[in-house]
Amino acid sequence: MRSCRELGAVFVAAWALACAAPTAPPPPTRPAPGPLAEIGAGLYQQHCASCHGMDGRGDGPVATALVVPPSDLTMISARRGGEFPAGELRTWIDGRLAPAAHGSRDMPVWGSRLHADLASGEFREERVRGSIAVIVDFLATIQQTGELPGS
Ligand code: HEC
Fold it and tell me: What CATH number is attached to the domain comprising 69?
């Protein structure tokens, strides 16, 4: 039979192991980048990175010149309790349907800009919406899953 001391040591070792064991990782809320998100990444770099930064953290080269700081786009889900509101974001980024009552907006109205950029032709509106949709797909892949700082 083992001595009491030995058993105690085994118990302490087991306890230390149990406490050191990593806690289960949180379920992934970030989709893996697919082909559409990759196209979106290119459009993001072209149109959005100047203000929102290459990594979406709101630190693009133009950011310091703006009165209203560009949002940290990696924290969209964190600011909304883990939810990624894709539809709402598409509408907001497009901006053409935003009611004037919502006050001024420092973010460009991308629906109009993209519409102007794209040569007129078939499916022009569809291409505007498609561009915005794949940018939002890209934004979904850069969400930080952690808690908001200070929360
Ligand atoms: C000229 C600078 C500028 C550019 C370029 C720009 N944004 Fe913004 N964006 C802003 C500012 C400033 C805000 C803060 C909200 C406001 O407009 O008052 C913002 C806010 C946002 C928000 C709201 C985030 C939230 O959590 O509510 C989203 C989403 C967004 N931008 C996406 C984009 C995307 C996508 C592009 C590219 C198609 C883009 N932005 C390009 C300046 C910019």
Answer: 1.10.760
58 touches ligand 1 (CB under 6 Å): no
CA 137 to chain centre: 9
Q: Is 148 in the pocket of ligand 1 (CB under 6 A)?
A: no
* Structure-block tokens of residue 123: 């499916």
Q: Tokens 């149109």, residue?
A: 47
**62 C-beta closer than 6 A to ligand 1:** yes
Q: Is 93 a pocket residue for ligand 1 (Cβ < 6 Å)?
A: yes
Q: Hey, whose CA ends up nearest to atom 14 of ligand 1?
A: 70
Domain hosting residue 82, numbered range = 31-141
Q: What is the separation of C-alpha 101 from the centre of its chain, rounded to a whole number of angstroms?
A: 27
| Pairwise CA distance, residues 90 & 112, whole Å | 13
Instruction: For a ligand 1 pocket test, name from 55, 59, 71 the mutation site with the most ligand atoms within 8 angstroms of its C-beta.
Output: 71
Count the domains in the chain. Answer: 1
Q: Is the pTM here over 0.85, yes or no?
A: no
| Residue range 66-122, pLDDT digits in tens | 999 999 999 999 999 999 999 999 999 999 886 655 566 788 899 999 988 887 778
